[in-house]
Design goal:
The chain is mostly helical. Helix content is 74%, strand content 3%. The protein has 26 helices and two strands. A two-stranded antiparallel ribbon has the order 1-2. Strand 1 and strand 2 form a beta hairpin. The longest helix has 48 residues. The protein is globular. The chain starts with 6 loop residues before the first helix and ends with a helix. The relative contact order is 0.07.
Length: 622
């Protein structure tokens, strides 16, 4: 079946092309086209995964370009990592397609939305299957195009247009780093192929300096796509897109691409201790940075967005701490519980028609199923025992501790405390207490929306068990099978880490319960005792203002300077040349006015001048 894996991204591409051509005629029936083709992709992905579980890596390539003796190839590769990613991406995409049928059914551009979903899914699946850096880069950019279209879907809103441009530009900054790193690797090894690059690294053909440089440049690309500091500000603004888009981007596709890139290039990163330290440090700082912002936000989708940034930081911390399995494991569990949380948030927004959690409350009684599903996702992301997030987060903390990153370990533990607190703050404010909004007709979402959430809820509970001693650490052993450069399938850590993570999670939940459910503790203690700190967090550390006052304004000044150079210097010189030529033209044209007398006069004058010249020259010669 692996030899047919190339068909997996083709199906959503067919959906995109089909809906682009005749989607307007199908209207709401467009959903069935998108759902069908993504379902077929998912079925094929599962079949490929089953095949890969029983066999070795499969690779098929053909020559794309021939430059001298160098061949540039394109094709597919199915290894353990991308076989897992194929299932994650296609499953979440399929569920989002189903969910969108209920969430977007009144939208005038319904078919266009499904066409964009198909393009986005095709790009991510193509990225995952790529066997070399060049092909990955092609689909990497196509993922950026798809995100631009989906984030800016409500293009008639100023905020949506600005968010789409912001996402596109900021991720392009990271992409420049990836492109330069990719070119440097090609210069050093003569190939874009992963195997050739990794072999060159293992054989010492690349200097440590070059390995570090290329690793960091590639990591810049991952920083942009996965919303790590300092290129994170686009990700919360991406909430301007429809909620199903948020679930797709934040769970299994675009933001996962950066983590997937670092995991794919792990043999390169692991050869440089400096690069690994940078990855781990950026990840840990991003985790606590984004979690602290989530403590005080009021928009339900932005809270979840900052939780995504924080969780991606955890994944980078794991990879930078030599925890390859831990990073990939959390990537998988996060895809399920974060997609669940976003879809459940969409169900809430669909019911109350606001994103402000201050205008919600009491929804447990009115949307009980959504409340239960949201609670499952909240428990998973908070790291409560027996839920998937507990197992993957513990694996990350063990990796950080065993690798000697003690300070980063402490930051990650604090971020875990913040996560449990702000997620249950969100839960209690949305589903607990009394309703504080104005919407009258609040009701549970339809089955087409609750079904995908139910599937994701089951996965949010069960997916963590594939990497536990009870199942022989199956996922890790399979991911690292016959690849010692990826590390061990499971790292045994001290028991106190598990106890600590459990205590921290429950302590965060306890504080949120006291403040927002029981209300025996003041919820305004931070804004009252430390108003500047509260404002600092609410304004997101003023990162947007800093960028606006520095980079954006500097670019504007440079642009204005270039504009004036063009207006007054370049255009002035052009106008001067044009003026001179036009003057000569006018002088010449004035001699051709159709008057025979003037023509005769000019002819006789010319003849007289000619005779005079000949006479003078003849006399001189004589």
């Amino acid at each position: 079946m692996m030899e047919n894996a190339w068909l997996i991204p083709v199906f959503p591409l067919i959906s995109f092309l089909f809906l682009l051509l005749i989607g307007q005629r199908l209207k709401e029936n467009s959903a069935y086209i998108g759902i069908f083709f993504t379902l077929v992709s998912f079925v094929f992905s599962v079949a490929v995964l089953m095949d890969r579980l029983q066999g070795p890596t499969y690779k098929a390539e053909g020559t794309w370009l021939q430059i001298g003796d160098t061949s540039i190839t394109m094709g597919i590769e199915v290894n353990a990592l991308n076989a897992l990613m194929l299932v994650i991406v296609s499953l979440v995409s399929f569920l989002v397609h189903v969910y969108s049928k209920g969430y977007m059914y009144k939208d005038e551009r319904f078919s266009v939305f499904y066409a964009y979903l198909g393009l986005f899914t095709f790009a991510m699946l193509g990225l995952v299957l790529s066997p070399n850096l060049l092909q990955l880069y092609v689909f990497w950019e196509l993922v950026g195009v798809g995100s631009f279209l989906l984030i800016g879907f409500y293009f008639y809103n100023v905020e949506a247009r600005a968010a789409a441009k912001k996402a596109f530009i900021m991720t392009r900054i990271g992409d420049v780093g990836l492109f330069i790193g990719m070119i440097l690797l090609f210069w050093q090894t003569g190939s874009f192929e992963y195997e050739v690059i990794f072999t060159a690294v293992q054989n010492g053909e690349l200097s440590v300096t070059m390995i570090t440089l290329t690793s960091l440049l590639i990591f810049i690309g991952a920083i942009g796509k996965s919303g790590q500091l300092p290129l994170h500000t686009w990700l919360p603004d991406a909430m301007e897109g429809p909620t199903p888009v948020s679930a797709l981007i934040h769970a299994a596709t675009m933001v996962a691409a950066g983590v997937y890139l670092v995991a794919t290039m792990f043999p390169l990163f692991s050869a440089s201790e400096t690069a690994m330290t940078v990855v781990a440090t950026i990840g840990a700082i991003t985790a606590i940075f984004a979690a602290s912002i989530g403590l005080v936000q009021r928009d339900i989708k932005r809270i979840l967005a900052y939780s995504t940034v924080s969780q991606l930081g955890y994944m980078m911390l794991a990879l930078g701490s030599a925890g390859y399995v831990a990073g990939v494991f959390h990537l998988m569990t996060h895809a399920f519980f974060k997609a669940l949380l976003f879809l459940a948030a969409g169900s809430v927004i669909h019911a109350v028609h606001t994103q402000n959690i201050e205008e919600m409350g009491g929804l447990w009684k009115k949307t009980r199923l959504t409340g239960i599903l949201f609670l499952i996702g909240t428990l998973a992301i908070s790291g409560v025992p027996l839920f998937s997030g507990f197992f993957s987060k513990e694996e990350i903390l063990i990796s950080a501790w065993m690798h000697g990153n003690y300070i980063l370990f402490i930051l990650a533990v604090i971020a875990a405390l913040f996560t449990a607190f702000y997620m249950f703050r969100l839960f209690f404010m949305v589903f607990g207490g009394d309703f504080r909004g104005t919407e009258k007709s609040i009701h549970e979402s339809s089955a087409v929306m609750t079904f995908p959430m139910t599937v994701l809820a089951v996965l949010a509970v069960c997916s963590g068990y594939v990497q536990t001693p009870w199942f022989g650490s199956f996922l890790g052993d399979w991911l690292t099978e016959n690849r010692p450069e990826l590390g061990h399938g499971h790292i045994e850590g001290p028991l106190w880490i598990m106890v600590l993570t459990t205590v921290v999670s429950f302590f965060g939940i306890f504080i949120a319960y006291k403040m927002y459910s029981q209300k025996s503790w003041s919820r305004d203690w931070l804004s009252g005792a430390l108003p500047m700190t509260y404002t600092f967090l609410y304004r997101k550390y003023y990162m947007d203002e800093i960028y606006q006052g520095t980079i954006v304004n500097v670019v504007k000044v440079i642009s204005l300077f270039c504009k004036y150079v063009e207006e007054f210097l370049v255009k002035g010189l052009v106008a001067l040349v044009v003026s001179i030529i036009q003057s000569i033209r006018k002088m010449g044209s004035s001699l051709h006015n159709g008057q025979i007398q003037r023509y005769g006069t000019v002819a006789f004058l010319g003849l007289a001048v000619l005779i005079l010249i000949l006479a003078v020259s003849g006399g001189y010669l004589g």
